[in-house]
Amino acid sequence: MNNTYNIIIIGAGVTGCAIARELSRYECKVLVVEKEEDVCCGTSKANSGIVHAGYDAKSGSLKAKMNVRGNELMTQLAADLDIPFKRIGSFVVCTDEANRQGIDELYQRGLDNSVPDLKILSREEVMEMEPNISDDVVCALYAPTAGIICPFRLNIALAECAAQNGVEFSFNTQVKQINKNEDGFVIETPQGAIKAKIVINAAGCHSDELHNQVSDTKLHISPRRGDYLLLDRSTQGCVEHVIFPQPTSLGKGILVTPTVHGNTLIGPTAVDTDNKDEAPLTADGLAKVIAGSAKNMRNIPVKQVITGFSGLRAHEDGGEFILEEVNDCEGFFDCVGVESPGLTACPAIGEYMANMVADKLQLAQKKAWNGICHDIKKPFGMNEEEREQLIIEHPKYGRIICRCETITEGEIIDSIRRPLGARSLDGVKRRTRAGMGRCQGGFCSPRVMEIISRETGMPLSEVTKNGGDSRILTGRTKDEN
Prior knowledge:
D-Amino Acid Oxidase, Chain A, domain 2; 22 strands
């Protein structure tokens, strides 16, 4: 890492990495700094993986504009970056005749937001498309442009594409202080000072703290915890679309959705908390997930739960995306309050923020820019002939490490050797799905740790679950001799 850049982006979540990819189109030196050990370690790692249609946000708001534009961009982005993505459509379900007007209002808002192909379906139409919908269904808003995506691959692919086009990344680098001077900014970190002409604040739940260091106009972020339950792949088919309840002031409510990998996901709750870094799963939260999902769907096979998890959303008091240069701090750009539909909006936010910064610095576009990025080779996603040829050329793609998800040693090695490669169990897990199956890593984790140690030269005792102090091993039970 050098110490002088044109642009520093703080935060390697999906928004920061989307901005980095867009800025990599220009002739400039860009650094992304991240306090965690990898990309996709904050809000981006624990969300619903939904590509929202855009009817929910207030008409004329940045949320609405970025949502609709992000949805529009997602098909091409997913193709370019090899991201699993399916447009399966969504329902907002009304189960009380007294609330039918709310569906009409969402429909009109969607029209105002230029969401295409919206329809209000009758009870009979809904039940035909979703046989397990609640018997209480009255009608539903149908948005065929909604979809599901792999949030991990989206974040990682954006980062990898940015890196292959010259953007630098510095992990385990926490911003302690930001100082403004006549040349730009000096950012103090435990690794030393970094200088930049422009700073982009995409620090999620901590973005208000960074903003408040440089501006007299203060912001406030409320971390909002959401609990989820993930069901086994054996539940595939119990739901075919994304099923939402009617939204409330706390968000879109507890949804039921298939995932792109064949699981079923239910959640999240919405609980405001004071903790910006940890979102401990609670029994009460999980009970609310089960009860909430049952209001709109019948026969959810909750006995097939394989794991629960929780995440934090960065809710700004005004409830709007803040995407702008700070009025009283030239060169400091906020990307603040990016909660749902932030995942959907990230391509549009990247485009929007990069355009502002490029105009500010009068940047020239590169003559050669590569926007294509391929995922890890997946032998069990190939036909038999292709798989056999791959294994002949690279035998480790024939050695299965994770039996639940059928992940091979070759895939795990690739995840470590790639640009911005994995350095932890969770890093491998997000890139390959090793450990995401029914046993949740109970069998494969020791072998994955050995591969990480061998490939990186890291002592086995230093391999962590997710960086920091999350070491798995504490010592040896007996000498190797």
